[in-house]
Design goal:
Layout (H helix, E strand, L loop, with lengths): L2 E4 L3 E3 L2 E8 L2 H11 L25 E4 H9 L3 E3 L3 H10 L5 H22 L1
Parallel strand pairs: 1-5
Antiparallel strand pairs: 1-3, 2-3, 3-4
Length: 120
């Protein structure tokens, strides 16, 4: 199991933010506890958001770049900007819905093509 952090840079006030997520909720919460991010900032998980569902297509935290560095020191794997899409697509591959699985596979194929072009 793995914790991931991406290389995106989004402004939030005076901070620059990126995304942190994991293969399991337990791993994700363990990481934010280690790096000092409050659990209340979770997105995409209604129970831990104190009943306020923060809209997100996957369970993650937006974290500042200083927290990103700490997460990497604690073993988080750095991904590119397609990491979150790849993660949600891999989850969707387990869906009983064949249309959802097909869309997920298409997303994974597209990401692989984009990454191959960038590497060439």
């Amino acid at each position: 199991m793995t914790v991931y952090v991406d290389d995106v840079r989004h402004r939030f006030g005076s901070m620059i933010m990126c995304h942190l997520w994991a293969d399991t909720l337990e791993e994700l919460l363990a990481m934010v506890d280690k790096i000092g991010v409050q659990r209340k900032w979770i997105q995409g998980h209604q129970t831990l958001s104190f009943g306020k569902h923060r809209n997100a297509s996957w369970v993650h935290f937006d974290i500042a770049l200083t927290k990103k560095a700490a997460a990497i020191r604690h073993g988080a794997v750095l991904t590119d900007r397609y990491g979150p899409v790849e993660h949600t697509a891999r989850l969707a591959l387990a869906s009983p819905d064949p249309d959802r699985r097909a869309r997920a596979q298409q997303q994974l194929d597209t990401i692989a093509t984009i990454r191959a072009r960038a590497a060439a």
